[in-house]
Every structure is written in C-alpha cells, then in structure tokens.
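Bug #77: duplicate submission created two jobs. Keeping one. Sequence:
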Amino acid sequence: MKRHVHAALLMLTALGCSSHTVERRIVIEQWDTLGLITPTSVQDTTILEVHKVVSWNGNYAVMDGNDRDIRYVSKQGHLIWTFRKIGGGPGEVRSLITMHVGPNGRLWVYDAINVKLLELDEHGVVVRDRSLQHLPVTPLSFGFLGSRLVMTTQSPNPFILVLDTASLAIVRTFPCPWPEALAPQYNFRTSMAAGDSVLVAALEFGPGFLVLRGNQIHLHNYIDHIPWAMKITPQMQAARADSARYGAVSIAVDSGRIYMLFGGRPLRHAHPFEPTRFIDIYRTDGTYLESYRLPSHFKAMIRDGGNFVLTNQSSDGMPQIWRLAPVASAYSGRKRPLTVLNPEERWRRRGCPCARSRRCCG
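Kept job's structure:
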C-alpha cells in the first residue's frame, strides 16, 4: 500500500529553550469533591484497578482488571454491565490499551496483543471486530480527529498513522518529528485526546507533545524539562533508567485548552515524595497558561462538564474515581502552597467513619 509521508508539513515550534524548566503558575490549590466511586469492602468488585475512564452516555466506561475488563458504571457507582471475553477469537481480547468514544457514538477499544479494534454498543455488545494486522507497524494508542482515526506507533517512521475510519485504510503517515534522538522503548508511549479540531499526542516520558491540526503537526516542549527523556546515553541504560520521569500521563482537550495530568515516575523507579500533583494547562497552540495543584496522587484524568474525573487508590489499596471541581481562591498563584486536604481526610472531617464514600455514610 502506498503511503505518503508529509515531512514538509511538520511545523516545529518549541516552548522556549528545551534545557530549562518554566516555573509553574499555580492558580488553583483547593478542590470541592462532587462525587466518589469506590468499593465499600474488599468483597465489592464493582471496580478493580482503574487504568482509564471515559465519559459515555452520561455514565463512565472504566478500563479495569489488568486491562482485560470494560466496566460500565453510573456516576453513583452502580455497575451497569461488564465486558470480559478473554482470547484470540472474534469479540475476544487479550490486552486492552486504550479506549475512546468514536464518531458513531460507540465505544472503541484497542487490543494491542490481538492488534484489533472492537466497537461496543451501549449494552456492552461487540458490534464490530476489526483487525489492524494490515498496518506496517503495531499501533500503541489511538484517537479521533473528526472522521479520521489517528494512531501512534513505536516506530520513528511511521510514528503517526492517519486511517479512514470506515475502511481502516492508511490515508497519511508522519515520521516522528522530534529533532532529538528518542529511545522508542521509553519515549513513544503516548496519551491522546481530541477536541476543537485538534488531536494532541503527549509523550509520556517527554520531552513534549504534538498537536495535529488538519495536515500539520505542531511540536511543543513541556514546561518541565526532562533531560533524561531527550536522549538515552549508554550510562543511563546501564543504570536501568533510574532517573526516569513521567511527562503527561493523561490529557484532555476542552474549550481551546489542553489539560495535562503531569509528573510522577514509573512504579519501578517511584519516589514516595514525587506523586502526580499537577494539572498543567496549555492553549492548543502550545502556549503554557497555568497549573492546578492537586490534593493527592492521581493516575488518570478526564474532563466532564467543566469538572475533572480522576482516578487513584486509597491508602488501603481501594480503587477510587473522584469527581472534583476546582475552587478559585484569593490566595491562588502564591508561591507557598496552601494546606490541601487529601480527599479521604475531607470525608473523615465530614464525619464519615470509613472515609470512602457518601454511600457508606448514608
């Protein structure tokens, strides 16, 4: 199949010097808890380990259970249905990587081992099972830009595949536009989100993110310089990437802004005092605007009606899905942080003995 590489369309724009970190402008440090979904006991298996959340038809689709389950739950935490079919046959999956709501309103999920896309209807029934074995490289993630399906890969060329949604035929490809050499095994993991006629692919290990608008790719650095991610030296490899840091682990695009859940480290290199605590906000042209300081460590994020849905685990290992609203404060923007309560501590101070949910407190 003939593929067209539009290298001439790459527009490389950077946010200042790549070797410096831009100071964050913290404007939000207080949050209001609008809702919490979490098991009421260890026997409650409504949700297990949450990998990704998608807002869909007024409820939440949760990628759960070691990336093999899709659980559809209400915003009150009631389980509506579970999709779990393990295997390599039609309608079966082995390793779900990500999911998005498609242009047709169905939930599209990507199985990286079977290399295929499934389309689920509102009842959790597989409507279409579509192989991606015809692609020249195995995709890592995907998103939608209008009627086009956009996939990233672990190859420098092609790094981005643009597919026709109906036929899954390749319409266009792009090489990795980064001017620095990247180590694919670390850097090419991406988080993707779309909105406002743009699609954003953020490299989870830095050094930045790509904005695809029409046929053009715009390249931007994170405000946090991640020197290790720019080029992997033999010494770093020999040290087993001890200093590896995450960039944006989850992103959302809404009303002309890009929201990035930023920071932290891979679990194998985790440092207890470096949790993911920031949401960095950029314009879709890559201009950094401001940041929100989060009250706790979170692993995934979406926007939902102007608020944020974030996932984490409680101190006793229970999965949690929080719905939080930022609260503007007269003290926002000062350098010294406010005393921000962990969400669980807020429930305790409100008199909830188990500190987990409204349900358990009646």
